[in-house]
Amino acid sequence: MAVPEFILRLRKHVGHELLWLTGVTGVVIDPHGRILLHRRASDGCWGTPGGILEPGEQPAAALAREVAEETGIHVVPERVACVHTEQPWTYENGDVVQILDIAFRCRPVGGELRADGDESLDVGWFAPDELPAMSEMVMRRIRHASHERGEAWFDSGTAAPGG
Question: Where is the Nudix hydrolase domain positioned along the sequence (predicted)?
Fold first, then answer.
């Protein structure tokens, strides 16, 4: 996975220091209730597709672009499912990031399922009761996007209603 050019430019100034980034994630749910997942090339784990906003990009448009790039599926973001600040993360090279993630519930509208071979090693549709092992962070996004209540969950530091 290529590091975006704007991050490379920032790293020239801040070195490995913490960068605050905005991420977008798509919980894509098909008409049969299956969830679109990809196995990330970065760590081999299954998760929901997404990425980092480029400067000037709108979150929903960036999310639709990322899902199509990583999975081949075209989506329409329907609503914000949750907004959450993740814990700081240190990459193998020492770069530290912290991501404010905006997770969208999306519906597929076309495309052909395929792994891009760069960011995604594998892709697939999974029934909610047949999901592969995933981090609690990814499961939280799926839970909030799966609720039909239509309102977004914002982490206030307390337990979220309904999970």
Answer: 19-155
Q: Which tens digits make up the pLDDT trace of 138-147?
A: 999 999 998 8
Return the CATH architecture of domain 20-154: Alpha-Beta Complex (3.90)
Listed residue (100, 131, 106, 122) closest to 31, CA to CA: 106
Integer-rounded Cα radius of gyration of the chain: 15
